[in-house]
Amino acid sequence: MLKYILSRVVMAILVALTVSCISFALVYASGDPAIAIAGENATPADIAHIRHQFGFDRPVPVQYGDWLWKALHGNLGVSHYFNQSVASLIWPRLEVTMTLGLCAIVFALVLAIPMGVIAAMRPNSIVDRLALLIAVMGQAIPSFWLGLLLIVAFSINLGWLPASGTDSWQNFVLPTIVLGYYAAPAIMRLTRAGMLEVLQADYIRTARAKGLSRRKVMFKHALRNAIIPVVSLAAVQMGFMLGGSVVVESVFALHGAGFLAWQSISRNDLPVMQALILIFAMFYIFFTFLADILNAWLDPRLRGR
Amino acid sequence: MTYAKLLCSAVALGLALSGTAHANKADDTAEVLFAKDLDNPDIYFSSAREAVIFGFQVFDGLVYLNPKTNKYEGDLATSWKWVDPTTLRFELRKGVKFQNGDAFSADDVVFTFNHMADEKTPIADPVVIRWLDKAVKIDAYTVELKLKHPFPSALAYLANYDAIYPAKYYQKVGSAGFAKAPIGTGPYKVKSITPGTGYTLERNEDYFGGPKGKAAIKTVKVDTIPDTNTQLAELMNGKADFLWQVPQDQAQKLKSLNRFDVVNAPTLRVGYITMDATGRSMADSPFKKLKVRQAVNYAINREGIVKALMSPSNHVIDSACNPTQFGCETDVTKYPYDPKKAKELLAEAGYKDGFSIDLYEYRDQPLAEAMVGMLAKVGIKANLRKMQYSALASKQMKGQVPMAFMTWGSGSIEDVSAITSHFFEGGPTDDAKDPQVEADLKKGDSSVDPAERKAAYSAALKRIAAQAYWVPLWTYSSNYVMSKELKFAPTPDEIPRFFDMSWN
Amino acid sequence: MTTAVISKPLTPRRVMMRRALRHKGFLMAGTVLALIVLAAIFAPLLAPDDPYEQDLLARLQVPVYLGGSWDHPLGTDSLGRDVLSRLIYGARISILIGLIAACVSAVIGTTLGVLAGYFGGRVDKVVQFLINVRLAMPVVLVGLAVVSLRGGSLWVVTSVLGLLLWDRFAVVLRSATMQVRSMEYVAAAEVLGAPLHRVLFKDILPNVMNHLIVIATLEMAHAIILEAALSFLGLGVRPPTPSWGLMISEGKEMLLFDSWLIATPGLAIFVLVLCINMFGDAIRDITAPEGRN
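ok -> structure tokens follow
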């Protein structure tokens, strides 16, 4: 088990380093950042001054090393646009995005697991088909479009919920639905498949034969086993969803990290872009790591690998 | 069964939610929505209009341009006079206090101006203060500004941009600290500020009065919402009180609803197409040929676009400036819509079958797309490339843009030096590099004699039009949409003054 | 006729054909997809107008179902362009982006997955590492960043998506190849000294083809949705290209007053992606009916 964890840790660190390299290179390729910062009325002297001030005149590997070293110490640089430390800009927004991500994954689980179980109880029945249809629809509806439709319905026509902002919990309701519905289909499919598989297993048949009630068998025995892969999928989905929050947060002007990322891209605010790509990647790496460990812990067969 | 539960809780949730709280007249809070955010509350470090607007509420300058009379009035100064063309002397107001209690005196003016005019301070837009050589304290309430060269627009910049900061406090907290908690003398003080999200202002109860007058509304909450339709959604569900720069189509529809006040106000902003006439973006730039530039001018149906897509208060311009600006010569070569002539000119220039070119733009995509369609009709295949303003501006300064549809608001300065000189005096934004134009503009910029300036600018603008360096397009007006509760009269300088707002 | 059919031997292919013809989802999704593809191919014949032709005097005309005229059955947009024509030409963009992105990512992902599954050991470790790196990159964010740096165009968007969406191919084909490899006939071919490329192309690839096709449909749908999202955020293909995502983006300004402007292209994306996904599910059912999940 320890060896397994260790190998996962090494893998996670290697991936993190590679991603940091890519995100640095990606953003660095944007041309001369000094001109972008200098603004519309700058003279060549101003630009040279800025280039020196921000250290853009040093060799690229030095800049990367410097950036990474500082990032490891929690110093993500200074936003060119806001002239403030990137960390102080990002933290409050990460809170918003994490809240949204958590709400959305809970919503997705609450929606998807019962659906998966019911579908698995009667495979190929109308209920099953319906569940599948809802899942397929979730994958096919563009989330920004669904978001816009919900705004029209709930915020303009009914006036129940605000269309934008981060002031209260009400602001999170619509984004949670959109983001959660996006994540639900995969969870639903996995629950259903897991349940089908478990229901074929011998011990369930034995339990049924012993005369335990159908519902008890379903929820007490079958679901408990089928849920293992779902939990780790949920962890991975969480990582994905934080990345996917860009679109949803932009539609609802929810001031989270995804919204900041989108705006930073259009503002050419390199340090913020770099930091956010890195942070989203780290979250994903963390959640997959968590999923791996969880899997190994719940399923001893995996430990040997 | 689980479904039934879900459904029940959803309905319960819906019921619980109906009726959300809104800021409005009842709690004396005006909710303002902006599309762009305040990038830096230390306003010298921002080139965004949002910073100018913020500055007007929280800080004061030495002088104030009264939008009703269009005359300069003393703000933190009580009087001023030109000692000579490069020396401007101010008598300062006594008994003014900053919002942190510090007393205002000549030291604050001298510190702020000398610090910002220093080449080493990396302010965003050097134009606003770098005409100043130094500020000199004569006594506690008298200051002299020494200019580098005669600069007729000095008062305009002092009024719109050059806010006075509290010297002691600024030196203590630095620019970054100041950006987190700005302190001024203005009619509003900052209650809270979240970068990129918005800020909340509260009336400065100890405001000294001055030409701005005391604020009527206690709290103003400014939120950033980049998306027009989200802004409108907030307006419709009663959360927002004030929107501006609303596109014409939406403004018209809102007007027809009769639930809001929709006001259209002129601005100094003009649209134009700039063409690379020197071949710096590509050696064989077709725009090096006068006939091609003229053809582009003839090809675009500016009247048609303004009529169909813009508000009725906008009009077509023929000269590279806004007709309301000082020195804007309008009696120049005109190019009415004439696609046939455009085609002939293109053929004469050797482009019988037209050519393909990248057309860059950063705003008003429908207008840009409409022009692309018109250019296609005469054989010019323009590939539209949309970029963010700062990115596009830097690309253009590097000389990598063959053709761009841009706009310019002249920083609300009522003088052609803020537009024509900015673009045609040989700087990095200059796509023409015409020595004759440059010489005329320099003459106009450094003279203090209005007649002489007018003559010089007129010559420059006539040549620009004859050479068709630009396609001057149209003026822009701004649509303001306000809740019926809010009373506010927009000004042509695109600087909404919250302290002039009140409740109906 | 019937007797003739029955008398033919039941090859696996024929079994699948019969399953396909009895699969309702396959028939339905297949028909709709075929119609969309045909519309895309014959766009110039079908579209009533030029999708780029503006008519500033006929802006924002409502569609027929809201009381508009038959001159523009689906109305006109804010520049007076015919929405139906743009929709038909837009099918070309979506299908093109979906197909090319799926092909590019299929080539990358299949190569990596098959190599990892076949060789195992160190090769497998490296491929797993690459998959992890790729999965850690937030797709939308990286896509937005690249497009904002390179400028939006069909080509840039397609290649970014193609280079980003190969992970699922690699993951699935890796395990599928592992399974196939352990089968006897592959071992036999190796023992007989068949050259590597022969084993890979003749023995392995055909046997993982069904997985490949299923993933390809999923990723095609994924690419279409992502293109729409990028274009919606203003960093996708370049206007005036009639991309459905761009049409939503352009129409969203009028969301409150003319919501039909975004309803039409949004519905188009929804139907196309839904059918592609259903088609993929159907193929899975048909090729491996026991493994539906």
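Chain B touches chain A through 53 residues (CB under 8 Å).
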